[in-house]
Design a protein that fits this description.
Blueprint lengths: L2 E4 L5 E6 L2 H14 L2 H8 L4 E6 L2 E6 L2 E6 L6 E3 L1 H7 L6 E4 L4 H4 L5 E2 L3 E4 L7 E5 L5 E7 L3 H4 L6 E8 L3 H13 L8
Parallel strand pairs: 7-10
Antiparallel strand pairs: 1-2, 2-3, 3-4, 4-5, 5-6, 7-9, 8-12, 10-11, 11-12
Helix pairs in contact: 1-2
Length: 187
Amino acid sequence: MSKSLNQEGGDLMKYYPLRKKESAKVKNVVCLKLGEIVCNYVKEAKKVSVLELDDITIVLINDYPAFITDKNYSELIPTLFLIKRLGPKNFKHVKVDEGAVPHILNGADVMIPGITDFSEFSEGDTLIVMGPKDIILAVGKAIIKSAELQKRKKGKAIKTIHYAGDKIWKALLPQARKVLPINIKEK
């Protein structure tokens, strides 16, 4: 059963629970791609549902906005809210310098010269982008593997998918606050 919800900006969101088969697929994809901590969090879920906003599909875990996904649930990108909840160190990540922060918060991709620290990752991995003080800025996909970062001096390293202050952030902030009192500032 689906229901429509009005968002603060007037956009219509569609909400519905996932069937057991779809829920199992989401859990399997998470466990294959996102590590043990995230896998355990999703495996323990009592409720897996979906929130659709325009062309964006969000998977909710126990009503908490957890993943941005495609219609087939084959790619699951953690939301900044889930990353904050589970801790950024539980994900592959890069840290950027202060000069990169305003660009990333405007949706720019992460450039090699701005990266100051990183965990090991492969091309195509989902990465968390953090600022100098470990503030979560964005999540994206690695364009290159971490071994290339020291060899190259310029170019893109990460394609930004979701960042603090974007459409997804603004749409999900009320839902995240409703389900779990968290200290997240509006951008």
